[in-house]
Design brief:
The chain is α/β, with parallel strands linked by helices and 402 residues long. It is 44% helix and 15% strand. The chain contains 14 helices and 13 strands.
Length: 402
């Protein structure tokens, strides 16, 4: 094994997803980047970092350390321009090692790199329902995706997977050696702390004010996440419609950006007579984007957090719910049993009867919910962004020695 050259080593991170602009992926990128910078600051052998950012987040990334430089990259994600032009930008920055935190690695990436694979959802559910593209263009992009991800994992020095489930998926579907893949669990942090509340009474008053501002009806079930087809929200709404016959006082809050996919879910809710656009008195509420502080309130006040997904490479929202003392009931698919462990109740998301039975039983059993809250609080301690970043930093070191 050769020694690291004594020059200043430059590590590039593709952080164009950094922050809210990248949705769930944006939290991963932001937490990893921010914590790696802190680790490097205390490290005996410091690396130089070049952080590649988009026009949407360039000014939001603020660090003054001399070992950091920012580079604006005005190339759309998943585009031919990204594939063809990004390599030249990387070359110009004299990068020794790149970290691509998503599969969209340029096929002609000019330097050694590591890549994070969060899931293989597009190979598992290559559905036209998951896209707004014309049919021909959709399938061309599917082919391009498969080529790009296959080349990425084959050429990478190390492939980072966010769960053992995702690692096994990569081995089985892409034929990559297991010893080339490192698993680093994501962390849990919700979390700006602008709401400095000292007493339980003050928390309760604050929470009631937040719920009132959204005109929510308590008690309520909560879902947080996007509305892509594999999230299984259509079936969940059908189950909730049946639940209303025995529990008419319960409402449902579904938090996520109001995009094309949520518009489709709203149509399902309207057809089930659960939601109307012209009234605040529906059974289902779609608040759209919710700030971290308000989201903490929703987690705290929800009766249950329900996660009906058919496939997850990791599954961060239910852990965030646990961190805010919200009991979790989840699908038993994908990585979820691995990530949530014994701190959640599970149902078969393909079986509406099982979903309804398990949700109803938990609604009716206060002691079971309290037990889940206790288990969840203990369980989330296993998921730290500092640990995730530290393991990623070590992966950089090892990759530089290969």
């Amino acid at each position: 094994m050769k020694n690291i050259i004594k020059k200043k080593i430059r590590i590039g991170i593709d952080a164009r997803f950094y922050g809210p602009v990248g949705k769930g992926l944006g939290r991963y990128v932001q937490e990893v980047v921010d914590n790696i910078i802190n680790i490097n600051r205390e490290s005996e052998q410091k690396f130089e970092f070049v952080i590649f950012l988009s026009p949407e987040n360039f000014d939001k990334f603020i660090f003054t350390d001399s070992f950091i430089s920012k580079k604006l990259v005005s190339l759309p994600w998943y585009s031919w321009r990204e594939q063809l032009l990004f390599p030249f930008i990387i070359l110009k920055e004299k990068i020794d090692l790149m970290h691509y935190p998503h599969f969209n690695v340029p096929i002609f990436s000019p330097v050694a790199f590591v890549v994070t694979i969060h899931d293989l959802i597009l190979t598992k559910f290559p559905s036209r329902r998951a896209s707004m593209l014309p049919v021909t263009l959709y399938w061309l992009k599917q082919i391009a995706y498969r080529i790009i991800i296959q080349v990425a994992v084959m050429r990478a020095k190390t492939v980072i997977a966010v769960s053992e489930f995702t690692k096994d998926d990569i081995v089985k579907k892409l034929g990559i050696r297991a010893d080339k893949i490192a698993v680093t669990y994501e962390g849990v942090a919700i979390l700006s702390n602008e709401d400095k509340i000292d007493s339980k009474d003050a928390v309760l008053i604050n929470d009631k004010q937040v719920l009132s501002s959204y005109k929510f009806h308590a008690p309520f079930l909560l879902y947080v996440g996007n509305a892509y087809p594999h999230k299984n929200l259509d079936k969940f709404l059908e189950v909730f419609s049946s639940l209303r016959y025995t529990h008419p006082d319960i409402s449902l809050v579904m938090v996520g950006k109001d995009d094309y996919f949520y518009q489709r879910v709203k149509r399902v809710a309207r057809n089930l007579h659960l939601w109307r656009e012209d009234t605040d008195n529906g059974k289902v509420f779609f608040p759209g984007y919710v700030s971290d502080n308000d989201l903490k309130v929703l987690y705290r006040q929800a009766l249950l957090y329900v996660f009906p997904s058919l496939y997850e490479g990791f599954g961060l929202p239910p852990l965030e719910a646990m961190s805010q003392s919200c009991p979790v009931i989840s699908s038993n698919q994908g990585s979820l049993p691995e990530i949530l462990g014994e701190s959640a109740v599970y149902f078969n998301p393909y079986d509406k009867v099982d979903m309804l039975t398990k949700i109803t039983a938990l609604i009716d059993n206060k002691s079971a919910r309290e037990s889940l809250i206790m288990k969840g609080r203990e369980h989330v301690a296993n998921f730290s962004w500092q640990r995730c970043a530290g393991e990623t930093f070590d992966i950089y070191r090892r990759a530089l020695l290969k």
